[in-house]
Amino acid sequence: MIRSELIQRISEENPHLYQRDVEKIVSTVFNEIIRAMARGDRVELRGFGAFSTKHRDARTGRNPRTGESVAVDAKAVPFFKAGKGLRERLNEEG
């Protein structure tokens, strides 16, 4: 599902909301998750999962095309851990 499909589905399930308001809500939620992660905070949505960042140290990598050594800077990468409720729903029998 992409963002526009999410907005469409929420709009259909909530006909009392204008689509432009749903777009604003979805964008605000995503932007707040991104801001929190950029600050190094963890964002937990109960029953769904937790978003956090992991730190990767600087290292020496290889250019796959030439085989040349390349310095790769340290960086933070996004990480998602599924919650118990999500895992259970994905693994339901039937």
Automatic annotation (TrEMBL):
Family matches, as Pfam families = Bac_DNA_binding (PF00216)
Q: Which InterPro entries match?
A: Hist_DNA-bd (IPR000119), Histone-like_DNA-bd_CS (IPR020816), IHF-like_DNA-bd_dom_sf (IPR010992), IHF_beta (IPR005685)
Q: Name one GO cellular component term.
A: cytosol
Keyword Transcription regulation, does the record have it?
Answer: yes
Q: Which GO terms describe its molecular function?
A: DNA binding; structural constituent of chromatin
Report which superkingdom the organism of origin falls in: Bacteria
Per the entry, what this protein does is: This protein is one of the two subunits of integration host factor, a specific DNA-binding protein that functions in genetic recombination as well as in transcriptional and translational control.
Q: How does it assemble?
A: Heterodimer of an alpha and a beta chain.
Q: Which family does it belong to?
A: Belongs to the bacterial histone-like protein family.
Under which name does UniProt file this protein? Integration host factor subunit beta
Task: Give the species.
Answer: Hasllibacter halocynthiae
User: Gene encoding this polypeptide?
Assistant: ihfB
